[in-house]
Each structure stands twice: as structure tokens, then as C-alpha cells.
UniProtKB/TrEMBL annotation:
The keyword Zinc-finger does not apply. This is Rhodanese-related sulfurtransferase. Residues 17-101 form the Rhodanese domain. GO terms for molecular function: transferase activity. It comes from Thalassobacillus cyri.
Length: 102
């Protein structure tokens, strides 16, 4: 099944509207140190299978990485586990919203 992608503007609008947005950044530590979406939770790609036990299947999660590839892998994995997931189209390279270092 194809994973739906949100455009960065759509996610920024959701954040502005204070929607309950669950964003997971799957990049490595040195990448998030340079800035991540303030509302995002950092779970490295390699830690996703273990972290999945602590995620809520009733929530929708938006996966983020640098360019959208690793986060798509994470989204596909979580989708197979029965989670509702979306991917951020183009990843952080396309994100021009607010960021902060982890």
C-alpha cells in the first residue's frame, strides 16, 4: 500500500491550527542537533521497531527525515504493524517552518 505524503505547508498549517500532530523525526543524532521541527519526537530509524511498542495505534504519525527516504522506510514498517502513518514530502530539505536544535 502506498503511504500518503503531506506537503510541508500542510503540516505547518496543522501545527498552526494546534491540531494534535504527532511528528517523528527518524534522522541520526548529529542531524537533529542542527535543527528539527519543535513538535517532533526524535526516534532514530534503527530504533523504530523497538519504539513501536510505545506508540499509539489510534494516533496518526507523520514521519520525517532529511529528504523523505528513510522516513518512508519507517512509515512502511509502521504501516505494516497497523499504525496510521504519513510521510513528510521531501523531508527537512523542503521544510521552511520553525526548527530548533534537539
Amino acid at each position: 500500500m502506498a503511504i500518503h505524503e503531506y506537503k510541508p505547508e500542510e503540516v505547518q498549517d496543522m501545527i498552526k491550527e494546534n491540531k494534535d500532530v504527532q511528528i517523528i523525526d527518524v534522522r541520526e543524532d548529529d542531524e537533529v542537533a542542527q535543527g528539527m521541527i519543535p513538535q517532533a519526537k526524535h526516534i532514530r530509524l534503527g530504533d523504530i521497531p523497538e519504539a513501536a511498542n510505545n506508540l499509539d495505534k489510534d494516533q496518526e504519525y507523520i514521519m520525517v527525515c532529511r529528504s523523505g527516504g528513510r522516513s518512508m522506510n519507517a512509515a512502511q514498517y509502521l504501516d505494516q504493524q497497523g499504525f496510521k502513518v504519513r510521510n513528510l514530502e521531501g523531508g527537512m530539505m523542503n521544510w521552511d517552518g520553525e526548527t530548533q536544535p534537539k
